[in-house]
Structure formats: structure tokens, C-alpha cells
Amino acid sequence: MNLRFHWMMPKGGELEMKTAQETSRVLTTREKSPAALPDMQGWTRFARCAEDAGIESVLLSFSRYEPDTMFVACAVGRATKKLKFIVAYRLGLMQPATFVQQVNTLSGLIQGRVALNIVAGSSTTEQRGYGDFLEHDERYARADEFLEICQGFWQRNGPVDFDGTYCRVERGKLLTPFLSPDRTRPEIYVSGHSEQAKALALARGSCWLRLIDTPEKLEPLVRPFRERGIEVCLRLCVICRPTREKAIEAAKRLLPDEEIERQERNILTASDSQTLKQALAAADEIGWLNRHLWAGLVPYYGSSAMTLLGSAQELAQTFLEYKRIGVTQFIIAGWPKLEEMLIFGREVLPLIRAAEHH
Amino acid sequence: MNLRFHWMLPKGGEVVVDGRQTPYEAARYRIMSTSSSSVAPRPDMEGWTYFAQCAEEAGIDSVLISFSRYEPDPLLVSCALGMATTRLKFIAAYRSGLSLPTTFVQQVNTLAALINGRVSINIVAGSSTEEQHGYGDFLAHDERYERAEEFLSVCRKFWSGAPEVDFKGKYYCVEQGRLSTPFLAPDRAVPEIYVSGHSERSERLAYAQGTCWLRAIDTPEKLEPLVARARANGVTVCLRLAIMCRPTRAEAFRDLQALLPEDKRESTTKLKDDSQMYREKVAGNNFWLNESLWAGLAPHYGPVWTTLLGSPEELAAEFLKYKEIGVSEFIMSGWPEVDEVLRFGKEVLPLVRRAERLQVKTAHQ
Prior knowledge:
The structure holds two protein chains of two kinds. Chain A is an alpha/beta fold. Chain A is built from 15 helices and 13 strands. Chain A has one domain: TIM Barrel, CATH 3.20.20. In chain A, the strands form two sheets. Chain A has an eight-stranded parallel barrel with strand order 1-2-3-4-7-8-9-13, surrounded by six helices. A two-stranded antiparallel sheet of chain A has the order 5-6. Helices cover 43% and strands 18% of the residues of chain B. In chain B, β10 and β11 form a beta hairpin. Chain B is globular, with a radius of gyration of 20 Å. The chains are: A alpha/beta, B alpha/beta. At the A-B interface, α4, α5, α6 and β6 of A face α3, α4, α5 and β6 of B.
């Protein structure tokens, strides 16, 4: 099977911004950020370019700083034909039956082009702002129950009954089915590096979503998932330039000034995400994980800013190395948002497809 | 102010775009839409878009999109349909207890920003106990109202524009809640909130948290004191009804009787055992509430099938009677919906508006 490439959807207003500094999380979380508002013009343009570039899906991130992902997927999905939407959603914010009803409705409105990225929860502060007071570990236990109920509805095998610690449903019935040309339920990406996240992905997911690392480090981690028929998808940034040196130059120009750095640190260290703590540690200690994988942007832009950089040939080779160890999907970001995706579609993807055909 | 007229969104697959459908076929489709063999649970963008365009053409303000386990999620349907229209508004029904208020506000605000603020909310505290259990909600009728009250208080705190929301109640607790996406509409900072139901609890909820009390139609005489009380409590009143407009009342009644089920014992109302509106309306057997209002379909199909019938002139006069007692909005259905909404827009609404213009002139003299 061909590798599957997805891209991170820009935040509202981000398509017009040209540098990473400008689009850093400080910008998107502050008061009156353009990221708080839907940006149909920018999103539609980006989505159509993604379709042309050969990108399969866009990931829509969920937070209190942004519009609701389900509705953004609906609106942009109605304006596109092929592109799929990986909708991030936090559990604990609605009943599983309500969630399934929304996901199924969405699938019927956009020809089934919806997948889910299940996040058990982000920072405790943010969860409490939503009215969810469970702790990290309990959130995973709830997520397991939640997804079991969802799967029960998607099986469409009579009424759903469930009596758990966190969720309870009695003779649950939803008449709107998940509608898609090739599936009866959505793909479920479970993200996180903790043991609970991995267990949840194995038990209830169709794909484990995690940060990129070196192929050597990932190989043993990927294996148990592939043995159970679960895909592995890596999040990363890409910088593709004619030579590795030019790519490094471009990467260094993305480092922020000190003020942004200070604020970023405050936001990032407030998070209780394992993923982020590990990524920060990697950046501080090493910087370069191998010749093409650089963690230098992670302290400033978060854990998904782990960057694969090089020439088109080098990048294509690297993606194929991940394919050899069993990774099947990637969710990529880059700066500037649109240009980097266009470079990828034009320069890197054809090389990968040519190699895959051999 | 002019009366506001809304319409019920037809179910998926109900709208026949070429218009060849009898009133009986349309009504039966609606009744059968909750059966597991119906295609009504599937989103129907073609039929809905056609209906929405007809409704805009007819001068309809909003469409009500109902919520149940038998149909798609009304907020997402509003989103898709809102993108296919320019003026029409959407009254999305929602049950409290299905999501956290913060999540609900985030969704409503996102929707508003995507469709230029054309969204209102119809809060229903809950329908049948069985249906609520299927959603994972195990509260009893009265507690559901108490929770709905808390739910809307939290929502209103977010809509008030406070930088942070704190709330500690019996059902919900929010600590330093923040949402960056505001409710955006050209003329409002908070959506209109319709609270429906006939119980005392629902009336109180409407006064405490709603902007409009939504209930089934009755005669102007019966409604007058209730409307006066609602108006005194600062909310408007919206009536739900079915409408049958024909050249004469006799013709309207003939066509209306044709909608009765073949099996006279048939009733869909057992589905909503917890609803006082249903219990009230399906009791009794004098179906003519006055010469224009017939409740003969209610025992079979539910209270919102109580029908105002007559010629365009008679119907316009009836609407104005409701206006006199303080009612300001109506949500209607008709069979088939497309035919009836177009007929209403062409024949009844101009008469209502002309009379309203005359009233304004008289008032100014």
C-alpha cells in the first residue's frame, strides 16, 4: 500500500502569515487572535491546494482557542470534493451517543470524508474550563469506555447497552448511520506517547498517532501495532529545499526572538502531556536526532515541530525508511503553510510514488 | 413589530423536488420517518436546499430543525444548509444533558461565525425517558429542567463576554472556562433561545433563561392569559402549528381529513411519554377548537399537528388575532411542505403584511 500523507490545517488567518514566529502558539492563544474565527476563504484555498498536491486529509486541531473542528470539517468539506478531515476531539465533552450522532451526520454531509483523532484530554486547566474534572489516567479509562460505546453504535447490531464507571447507555439507538463509500465506521487515530495512550490505540483505534522519531527508535514501538493490524501515523514538520544546507538555513530562520521564546515556555510547561515533556527533553539534550531530523523548533512551537529537513531526494528516501519499519501515514506541517505543502506535492511526493511503484 | 414566520424543516427524503406528491403522501412520509426502514435519518442536501430556497422566496424567517435519535444532528445540518443559503436562519433544537455547556457554546459560536450568525437555539429539556436513556441521560423529568436551567446559565455566562467563566452547580461545574470563538451575528451577541414545553417547569425555564417561549397553538382566548404572563416575564411567545390554506375553508377541511391515518387507532404519541404538551393535547375529543383550528390529527400524530385552516383571508385574520393577544412568532408545517410554504408566502403573508402596514399607519395618525 502507498504511504498516506496528511497535512495540518492552518489556523484561522494563518495562511496569510509567512513565518513560524508569526503563527506560533502565542499568537493563536492570545486574546483576539484571528485563529479564534473561521477563515473560510483561507481554508478553502488551502484545502483545494492540498487536493491538488495529493494530500489525503487535513488534521483539524481542537482547543478552546479555536472554532469547533466538527463544524469546520462540515463547512470546508462542503466546499471540497476529495479531501478528508481528521477531526480532533477531546473525550469527556459530550455523551458518546451525541458524538456518534454528530460524526455520522457529518459523514452524510461530506461523503464520508471524516476520520477522528481522539485525544483523551489536554491540560488539566483547559479540561476544567470545559467542565471535565478527571485526572490524566482516569481520562484514558473513560476514553476506553467512550470508544467502546461508539463502536457499539457503529456496529449497527441492535440497541447499545453499556454500564461502565464513566459512561452508561441503555438501549441506545441512532438511526443516522455512518455514511461513506468504503467504510461503516470512521478511522480512529489515537494520539499520545503514554502507556495509556498506546493501550487505548491498541484496544480501540485504527491508527496510533505519535511524533516522529528516528526509524531505529520507532521500529520496536511500531511492531506491536502492526502485529495487531493497527496503522502508525507520525506527526512532523517538513522543510524541503534544493540542498540540505539550504534547508537548515531555512529552519534556523524559524527560531523565534527571545520574547516569544519566554512566553512559549510558559505555555508549554503548563501542559501535563507526556508527549510534550518527552519532546522538550529531546530538544534540550540533543537537537539533532539524526542527519535529517531536528528538534530545534520543539521548545518554541511544541512537540509536533520536530522537523525532517533536506533535499527532495533525501526526504523521499527518509519517508521510505519509515515505510520499511511499518509506518504507513504522516501528518505534516511546514512554514509557510501553503508553500511548504506545494513544494512537498511537487518535489517530494512524486519521488516517493515512483519508488513505491518499483 | 411585524409577525415572524418560521417553518419546520422537512425530514430527509421528504421533499420531492419536482413537486409531485400528495398531502397524504407527504404527511405519511413524516409519520414513517422514525421507522428503521426510512431514509429520513440520512442527510438530504438536495431536498433541503430546495426547500430552504423556497422558504427564503416565501419570506420565511427561520427553519426549525428538530432533534431526535431518528435524525441527523440539527447543528451540523444548519451548518451545511446555512452555507447553501444567504438569508434563512436556523432554529436548531437541542437537548440539554447531551454535551457540556462549554462544548455546546463552542459549537454554536463556530456555527454562527460560519453562517453569518443565522442560528437560534430551541432548548428541549428532554423527550421520552427511553430516548434519554439511550443517550446516557438518566435524570427524571423535573431534574432535567433543573439541569437545563444550569446548562443555559453557563451558556449565557460565556455569551455575556466575560473573560472567564466560573460556575458551580448541582449538574455542571466549570472552572476558569474560556472560549476564544465568540458568538458572531450582525445584530446580536447571544443567540435567541426558544424554550419549548407546556409544563410549569418549561414556562419557568423560558422566563429564566429563554428569549421566547415556544408552545403548541391553541385558541386566542385560551392563550391570552398565558401570553400576557409570558410577556410580563420578558419573553416573546412563538406558536407551533400546522397550516392548511385552500380557496375555501370547506376545501381546506376536506384535504385535512384526508391526512387521517387509515388505522384510526394509530398513534405516534406514546413515543413522548414524558411530555406534558403531548398528554394535554391527545386527551379529549372535541377537535374543533374554534372555526379555524382543528386538532383532529393531534391524537394520532402529536400536538404540533393542530391545524389552522381556511382561505388566505381567513388565515391572515387569524394570525392577526394572535398578534393582538401578544403572540409574535409562529413555526408552521404543511403538507407537502414545499407547496404549503410557497402558498403561504404568495397568498397569506402579503395579506398579513398589508394589514400590519395599515396598523402602523393608523397608529401614526
